[in-house]
Amino acid sequence: MSTTKVPFVTLNNKTRIPQLGFGTYLIPTTTAYDLVYEACKQGYRHFDTATIYKNEVEVSGGIVKFIKEEAKQTGSSFDEIRKQFYYTTKLWNDDCTSHEAATKGIDTCLQKAGELQYIDLLLIHSPLMGPKNRIATWSAMQDYDTSKVRSIGISNFGVKHIEQLLSWDGLEITPAINQLELSPWVMRPEIVKFCQQNGIELEAYCPITRGLKLTDPTITKIGEKHGVTAAQVLLRWSLQKKFIPLVKTVSLKRMAANFDFFDFELTADEMKLIDHPEAHEPTAWECTECE
Questions:
Q1: Distance CA 88, CA 149 (A)
Q2: CA–centroid distance for 239 within its chain
Q3: Structural domains of the chain, ranges and CATH numbers in brackets
Q4: 211: left (phi over 0), alpha (psi -120 to 50) or beta
Q5: Which residues are tagged catalytic?
Q6: How far is Cα of residue 257 from the mean position of the Cα atoms in its chain?
Q7: Predicted model pTM
């Protein structure tokens, strides 16, 4: 399957990220390696994992297996094909208790990345460790060698958490990304606006609402009009909002369908019909208002 249809987003540090990622939350170690390898064959080049997912070794291993096979078949070098891939992982709260702890956490993440050699994007998984430890963790992340950690960012941060980080007098690197649950029913307009005003891109997890809204009459009607699935409508909505959606499935059929929403466009009226800016119906955790 071609990967050329996937657009790229240029981050505030001038690096580029594919505007579609494959999420691996709750994918067990027994299946993650093979599933990620199959996703590579389907055309996915952007993969998202985390320390707390406990599958970093398998996720990176599935990518490495594909890269090695592709290098052998095409006569390209491993490094040439590695550049086509984007690997994200996240530091969990236990890694974010001090500058030293965060540095050890980053080292561990790099070890688990294995033959991928570097991490394209490293995120603080949540703001739950508190103001002091958020700053200490960011200090460690921005001090790290950029040849090993190319970009750094945040996840589940609310406006006040980002404001605190941006106002820190030791700030040298602005977060490249804030990864949040974003969908038509969790639009978070204040956070989205603030991030966009400060050059921070938005990654959207649970963009298809964990399937809970796939029978929504408006979504299904729009899907029928375009000859696409409800999931594809929601992914297209996310793309047109300038988000970077992260899809997750263990079904090879849905994996292919979730990669195939680039050939149609929602009209401005359809986008407005899908929008629910006053709704707040998260399907995952909610910590954007914590201290």
A1: 10
A2: 13
A3: 8-209+242-247 (3.20.20.100)
A4: left
A5: 53
A6: 19
A7: 0.97
